[in-house]
Amino acid sequence: MRIDIITVVPELLDSPFNHSIMKRAQNKGLLDVHTHNLRHYTPYKQAQVDDYQFGGGAGMVMMPEPLAILLDKLMAERTYDEVIYVTPDGSLFDQKMANGLSLKGNLIIICGHYKGIDERIRQHFVTKEISIGDYVLSGGELAAAVIVDAVGRLLPGVLNDETSALTDSFQDGLLAPPVYTRPADFRGWKVPDVLLSGDPKKVEVWRYEESLKRTEERRPGLMHD
Questions:
Q1: pLDDT of 103-162, one tens digit each?
Q2: What is the DSSP letter of 186?
Q3: To which CATH superfamily is domain 167-224 assigned?
Q4: In sequence order, which residues have a C-beta less than 8 Å from that of residue 223 and are 6 or more positions away?
Q5: Hey, is 101 helix, strand or coil?
Q6: Whole-model pTM?
C-alpha cells in the first residue's frame, strides 16, 4: 500500500512513521508512506499557501492552486483509490472504515490547516472526508497519522501475529476482553481461574462473555447500532 500525505508541516509526521509497527511495515515493503510539503508546489512568493476567505471573516483558507498542482502531479503518476481530506465535518473514522481502507492500493491524505481548504478542491478532487472525532485540532497531521497507523497495522504481514488485529476492540463490534500476564498472583490480585485452565473452549467463551459485559458497561451504543 502507498499513502501520500499532503501537509504544510511535514516535520509533524516524522516520528509516527519512523518507529515501532509503522517503521517495521515500511521496512518490510508492505507500506510506503510519502509526505509532501505543499509549500514546495505553490506558484506564489514566500511559499504562500493560504489567503483570506471571500466574504470576510476570521481565519485563513488554504488556496486551491498549490493543492491542485500537487494533486495533478501525483494523480498523473499513478491511480489512487481514494483522495482523503481529514476534516471535523467528515465521516467519523472507525474500525470498519479502517478495515475498508486497508484493502485499497494507493491513498492520498490532505491535511488541512487554518479554516480548511478551498471548497473547490473538496468538490473536484476529494473522494472521502474523514474526522477522527468531534473536536478540532491545529492541523490534519495528527489525524492523518492516526488513520495511517490504524490502516497500516491491518495489512497482511505487518503484525507478527496476524490474529492479533482480528481480536482488537471493534473488529466484531465489541470491546476487547480484559487481558492478563505473569505473575498469576500479583499482590494477592489473581488471574481468573479459567485463563489458567488450559481449556481453549472455556477461555473463548469467557472472553466473549467479558467482551459483551465490557461493551454493555462502557459503550452500550456499539451493541445497538
A1: 999 999 999 999 999 999 999 999 999 999 999 999 999 999 999 999 999 999 998 765
A2: E
A3: tRNA(m1g37)methyltransferase, domain 2 (1.10.1270.20)
A4: 173, 174, 212, 215, 216
A5: helix
A6: 0.89
